[in-house]
Design brief:
Blueprint: H1 4-15, H2 25-28, H3 38-45, H4 47-58, H5 62-74, H6 78-95, H7 99-111, H8 117-134, H9 137-143, H10 158-172, H11 176-191, H12 199-223, H13 230-249, H14 255-271, H15 277-288, H16 295-307, H17 309-313, H18 317-320, H19 329-338, H20 340-348
């Protein structure tokens, strides 16, 4: 099973649209309580942290933000604030270009059992996302160095190794992202089976359903949260739709159920005012599973990528994937075969006729 079977929800959406991992946990644990969330308290009492947030999210000055966060760590009050600041230090380290150097920093957070479990789980999820973003050897080696990570690594099967990482994340705290990624892995495994009526297929379907129910709980916590979490909610609906889409293509759930899930996801993204780049790509992949039967719908789904340059900016892998770096080439070739306009779009961006053979 290739890495593509596991990477969609986190990488294309959460990494390229960015910002989610360093924000989610700052509010979630305190939704519905009267006291100010710890993030607000940290902003109000730690000037260096507030400065780092401005530099990171408004000015995109990652290295300068990193220095502010290091100063903020000296002024952090208690384990919760310390964990928050350390997360931002690891996050800014990654964004500043030191990808391998950020990994031990995330691992330090994960290993500290006195830190809040959700912050530790988000740190594991971030490691998973880093692998899925590029699959670079130096990142994989650093992530799976030492225990408990070495035991999660399966030589020759990076997708399964990443699934193990996501399972570790939910053992710390049931985050929607890892729950859905696990479900995606099993949905793709079912798609490879010659028969979906076997006991194994039925057991994996039940596991998928369990994971989606767990994801629903985390998504529901965030729906009434501050707007900063709306991106996370939208991703949750997208991920669920993609899981159901895979199952529908394997005949495990009705096509109407998957279609309805995508329709709901699109409505959610529109409500929150979020550009549907990743969601539209996943919808197109789903439609392509049905071949010529849904080719006209696929063409309509891909039209913004062909006509709107802002959609292309959100999918740079369209250009590089002719080399199959992320294992996505087969999906792009299948869509191009069904939509000649999309094929021409790819060829204008460096693909050749040989790339489609």
């Amino acid at each position: 099973m290739s890495l593509k079977k596991y990477f969609f929800f986190i990488v294309i959406v959460a990494i390229l649209l960015s910002g989610l991992y360093g924000i989610d946990w700052l509010y979630k644990r305190y939704i519905g309580k009267r006291e100010p969330p710890p993030y607000t308290a940290l902003l109000n009492t730690n000037p260096a942290f507030a400065e780092g947030e401005t530099l990171l999210f408004k000015d995109n000055q990652y290295q300068t933000a990193l220095e502010s966060y290091k100063q903020a760590l000296l002024e952090a009050q208690g384990r919760n604030q310390e964990a928050q600041v350390k997360y931002k230090i690891a996050y800014a380290t990654h964004l500043s270009g030191d990808r391998p150097g950020s990994i031990p920093l995330f691992k330090e957070i994960i290993a500290n059992t006195t830190y809040p479990p959700d912050i530790r789980a988000y740190s594991v999820q971030y490691l998973s996302a880093m692998i899925e973003a590029t699959g670079r050897r130096e990142v994989v080696q650093e992530v799976y160095k030492g225990e408990p990570y070495a035991s999660m690594f399966v030589p020759g099967n990076l997708a399964l190794s990443v699934r193990h990482l996501n399972e570790y994340a939910i053992s710390l705290y049931p985050l929607a992202g890892p729950e859905i990624n696990i479900a995606l892995w099993y949905a793709d495994d079912i798609r490879t089976m010659q028969s979906t009526s076997t006991l194994q297929a039925q057991e994996e379907l039940k596991l998928i359903q369990d994971r989606l129910r767990a994801a629903d709980i985390d998504i529901a916590r965030k729906q009434n949260a501050p707007s900063i979490l709306h991106l996370s909610v939208a991703h949750g609906f997208e991920g669920k739709a993609f899981v159901l889409g895979k199952l529908a293509s394997a005949g495990m759930v009705p096509v109407q159920e998957a279609d309805a899930a995508f329709e709901k996801a699109f409505a959610m993204w529109k409500t929150y005012g979020i550009k549907d780049v990743g969601l539209r790509y996943h919808y197109a992949v789903y439609l392509s599973y049905f071949g010529k039967q849904r080719a006209s719908e696929l063409k309509e789904a891909l039209k913004p990528f062909v006509d709107d340059p802002t959609y292309s900016e959100g999918t740079p892998f369209f250009m590089t994937e002719r080399e199959n770096r992320l294992g996505l080439k087969a999906d792009l070739v299948r869509m191009a075969t069904l939509d000649p306009d999309f094929k021409q779009y790819l060829m204008k961006r460096g693909w050749t006729a040989a790339d489609f053979s």
